[in-house]
Design a protein that fits this description.
single chain, 2 helices, 134 residues, eight-stranded antiparallel barrel, alpha+beta
Length: 134
């Protein structure tokens, strides 16, 4: 069977386009869902700290049910960047996420110039709050 120049060009073009499409689709499967989305808390004696991390990259922090801070965050693999209104909101502190189990996380400082956050965040050991089913 003899191939024409047009059929060879079509086959040559189909392979790269198909390969690129496969790579794009596989990137969605490789990038895991954000492990921080949801409610997390820590109880320290009579103080309850609660954090609500939303899928849109924002979060709220509460102390004994009262709003304490709000901010933005991102997660990339095992690293989390966080910013809040108590420090320069344009600057993200960078922390490594250390999960002992999927519902328990600690934070290891990589880089944060905000002293208060740098001193507080690594002391947190948050547990995921399981939503109550109706």
């Amino acid at each position: 069977m003899r191939q024409t120049a047009t059929s060879i060009m079509k086959e040559g073009f189909t392979l790269p386009v198909g390969f690129i499409g496969l790579l794009v689709l596989s990137s969605f499967a490789i990038d895991p869902p954000n492990p921080m989305v949801g409610r997390w808390q820590q109880q320290i004696e009579r103080v309850t700290l609660r954090f609500n991390f939303r899928p849109d990259g924002t979060y709220d922090g509460f102390v004994n049910g009262k709003s304490y801070l709000t901010g933005r965050y991102y997660v990339h693999q095992d690293t989390m960047g966080v910013t809040d209104g108590k420090c320069n909101p344009a600057y993200f502190g960078i922390y490594r996420l250390k999960f002992s189990v999927p519902d328990s996380v600690r934070f290891i400082t990589i880089l944060d110039t905000c002293r208060d956050r740098r001193e507080t965040v690594p002391t947190l050991a948050l547990g995921r709050v399981t939503p109550v089913k109706p």
